[in-house]
Design goal:
Elements (H helix, E strand, L loop, with lengths): L32 E5 L22 E7 L6 H14 L3 E5 L17 E6 L9 E6 L2 E5 L5 E2 L5 E9 L5 E7 L8 H14 L19 H20 L2 H32 L4 H11 L14 H13 L1 H15 L16 H4 L1
Parallel strand pairs: 2-3
Antiparallel strand pairs: 1-2, 3-5, 4-5, 6-8, 7-8, 8-9
Helix pairs in contact: 3-4
Length: 346
Amino acid sequence: MQCPHCGSLDLLPRFKFCPECSLPLPRAPSIPKAVDVGPKLNENQSAAETKSASGEASEVELLHLNIRSPKDRTHLLELRELASERKSSIITISETWLNTSVTSAEIQISGYKLRRLDRLHKRGGGVCAYIHRDLKSSVIKDLSSISDQNFHQLWLNVQYKKLKSVVICVTYRPDDSPLSSFEEVLKPNYIQALTLNNRSSFWIRGRPCPFVNKEIKDMIKFRDILLKKFVQTCDETDWCNFKQSRDRVMKMLGDAGNNYTFHDVQANKNSPRALWKIINRAVPSKENQQSSYTKDLSTIANELNLFFSKIGQNAAEPSQSLMEKNNITARLRLAIPIQALTLQVF
């Protein structure tokens, strides 16, 4: 590396200032870091040679660059040349320095889709990702944002063909963002990302039905076919055929279950324990549900007291109207209910 001010040579890339003239050195693009997911390349094997006979890539390569804006013409040309040479599947970039004045078409790379997150209220910052068109990708909008501390997060969901999708996050912490952003901002989103696509299937075993034979199973399948046909046609004849098949299946299931239980009882009539097992299996037990109250017991007691105290009054009011309608005089005076709260009783 050469200093553009004094012409000093052999300067290391990590130097920010020239040791001879103490003037700042231009910052070169960072060396890309590649993360390979899949089989390793041999020393004499290029990325293009990793394609199989069908022309499909046998690995997914991810590159990350801190490029300080692809809108710089030189940086953009170097980036396009790097993408053409490496043929990486995903290229992530931090410090894009993009805003609404730069369109995606201006910094597009052939064969890649651009996903970007710009910092609009302040100069600098921003992250983006170039995803190869062979990969399906989408931005996880619920997780992607720039925090109040200017911590950048661009979360992507990437999938290759019918394989399981993977979640990729492009982050950038500028100098004015505290280190606590990793714990306060990134960690909650990371934990939430772990639950994405966590679809677990639980199989619930039903009651044992050993009496269901092949004939009954075939009738059930035939019943389902008739139902599907009716849903498609909405014809009255198809509905009648389905009902007949449904009733026939229900009768066959009932008869088969009764016969199975009868023969089981006959075979175990001398064993009380086995008989009770058969009874418990044939007769479903009642579910024991505990009552749940949303109010305190004192309020519930007062409401019950108010309800039952008005039973006589509610019955007397229609009686009074009937008496007046038919000119009947009551011999006894109707009692007036007195309500007593639980605090007055106890």
